[in-house]
Amino acid sequence: MIRMRLAVLRHGSGTRRAVGGVIGLALALLTVLTAALAPPLAVTGLLSALMAAWFVGWVLGPSGAGGGDTSLRPEYFALEPIPPRGIALGLLASSFVGVTVPVTAVASLSLLVLAVRWGVLAALVAVVAIPLQVVFLVLASRVVTALSGAALRTRIGVEVTAIRNAAVLAAGFSAYMLYQAVSQYTDVFALLWNRGVPAPYDTVLLALPSGWGVHAVTAAGRGDVPSALGALAALVLASTGLTACWASLLRQRMTSPTTAPARHGRGVTGRLGSLLPSGPVGAVIGRELRTWGRDPRRALELRTALWTGVLVCALGVLVGLTFMIPLAGLVVVALAALMSLNVYALDGTALWQTLLAPGAARHDVRGRQAAWLLVFVPVAVLLSVGGILFTGQHWAWPWVFAVLPALVGGGAGFSVLFAVLWPAPGPEPHRHGGDPLESGDVVGQFNVLFPVLLLSVVPPVAVTALGFFLDQPGLMWSGVAVGVLEGLLLGWGLGRVAHRRLERRGPELLGTLRWGRDTSARAAETGTDAEREGDPSGTEGARRTPLSRAGRNLDSRSSRAGAVVTALGLTFWLPLYQGSMSLVALASGVAERSWHLPLYVPGPWRLPAAVGMLLLGALMVAVVARLLLRAPEDERGGGNTATVDHPVREDGAATPG
After folding, report:
1. Is 648 strand, coil or helix?
2. Contacts of 86 (CB under 8 A, 6+ apart)
3. What is the mean pLDDT of residues 303-320?
4. Long-range contacts from 312-317, C-beta under 8 angstroms, 24+ separation
């Protein structure tokens, strides 16, 4: 199993692992430096707090090599003559292969650095505590992941997971508010650094499992050998119990049905279904509404988007900065579009039913768009209107209602277009194993759609901003008309492109969902010349579709190009935000510089610096687009590209070559 895991890592893309590894290593070195440089009175409490943060990261974000990795699933070994305990140990051993565990081991070296300050006995205890702490973190992540997979079959489990995910997203969207709130407590951080975590919180942190290693080292340094040995024994017992628990969960996963019984009852979707129009489109809307409410993956996406908007409002109220609250509805719509871009892959090969019905492609796409609007738009409008009325920030009326219709139309159009042109195939809905949320990898699609959505709202924002700068209220409100018109054009036009593509290339999409993208791409590239000549809108046109080309370039990119795309795709919004907010501050005469860098340069150079930030952001977007949409090497005359003899689906299953 270790060799299998190494093979998966060797043949997969290492860009995200490299970026994540660099970030994780920086955090690990920060933990080690804290253990080395913190004052003696504060080091124990600070280090126990940092180890608790690493524990939370492993438990709540088990998407790395040690937690939520699904390249090796227990179902693959269910029919092998291997006892469940052997499978559990093998999968546990393979969990230590990757980037996450070595980075965590570096962070755990802070225990050894702390022990050096205490003496030889503490150092000996640290040598034993470090591997025990790492093993405990990996096991805790594995058990929590397995329990989450079981809990997500219940409504409460979906709700809790959605709130957890939404809290992370809301913190990202509200980074400025959190920065402003934290910046007011610099004296508190200085006090923590000098005196440590105050009582009784320091005792609580040491009593948590994440603090047992720190407790063992400090106890050995004080000469309290029984207490140190007790902490080490507690780590051993906890790891043993977690191993037994995980083995039991694996046994249940390999022997129990992979699907949960359907939940019956009319509910909101049932009552709304009686109001839907009769006909194919109404039937698709009803089906989609039921799916959004019952399928765990769709239900989680729906609730994550809704809870993110609610938590953005809550964070604004808590920190006393309410300017983001009117924008919560826009956040909901943007997240709804990002989380709906893989709906056809989530439904799996059930697409064949649509393909066999003449004319059903258009009804299916339009029904999905209408259901998306019914699910997300009322909540977004309610949050926007309620946020403005609650905070009294009436300046936001023209801005919000200029951006909202354009974002709604773009979300309804781009989501189905990406789902048809650039699917991320995953396990079939009835074969998702113990985790009902297993699906394809859509990080590449996220990185492309996010800037596209931002660019789609530029026209209404530009018109509204022009009216603001010229002090023309009528021109500002005309941005609302521009946003509505653009939203209608995007929703209708992109939906038309999507259903026409589905009508022409539906069998290829079905093949991608069934066998994986690699197999379908090779089949398209090796099509006969007669087929290519007889179908001018066929294989060659499909290969040269911008989204198809972006997907192919993402799959076959070099490590250097992948690192550039990932880095720029994650940071392009920073200069755009800095430049736009600096221009708004200069136009309105606001003296608060905050974290807007152009406002820190000398007075005459502030405007050029703000414009330069905008140009830098535009250049970053252009570089990403160039790398994603450039012609493949074989289309540029670089010769035939090598093909994979045995392609592998994204869920790890081998496909016929």
Report:
1. strand
2. none
3. 81
4. 312/170, 312/173, 312/174, 313/383, 313/387, 314/170, 315/170, 315/171, 315/174, 315/177, 315/178, 316/174, 316/177, 316/391
User: Would you state the structure tokens that stand for residue 136, as one six-digit string?
Assistant: 């405990």
402 sits in which H/E element: helix 396-421
pLDDT in tens, 255-293: 765 554 444 444 555 566 667 777 888 889 988 988 887
Q: Which long-range contacts (CB under 8 A, 24 or more apart) does 181-189 make?
A: 181/318, 181/319, 181/320, 181/321
CA distance 238 to 225: 20
- Could you give the 3-state DSSP secondary structure of residue 654? strand
The yes-or-no verdict on residue 605 having pLDDT over 90 is no
Q: Are 214 and 111 in contact (CB under 8 A)?
A: yes
Per-residue tokens: 600: 């820190």
Sign of CA dihedral 406, 407, 411, 412: negative
Omega of the bond prior to 200 within 30 degrees of 0, cis? yes
pLDDT of res. 632:
53
Which amino acid is it at 81?
P
Widest CA span of the chain, in angstroms? 84
Q: Is 96 helix (H, G, I), strand (E, B) or coil?
A: coil
Four-residue CA torsion sign, 142, 143, 144, 147: positive
pLDDT tens profile 359-407: 899 999 999 999 999 999 999 999 899 988 988 888 889 999 999 999 9
Evaluate whether 454 touches 573 at the Cβ level (below 8 Å): yes
Place of tokens 């019956």: 264
Backbone conformation region of residue 601, classed left if phi is above 0, alpha if psi is from -120 to 50, else beta: beta
Q: Can you state the percent helix, strand and coil of the chain, rounding each to 5?
A: 75, 0, 25
Q: Which of 218, 200, 266 is nearest to 35 (CA)?
A: 218
Give the total residue count for the chain. Answer: 657
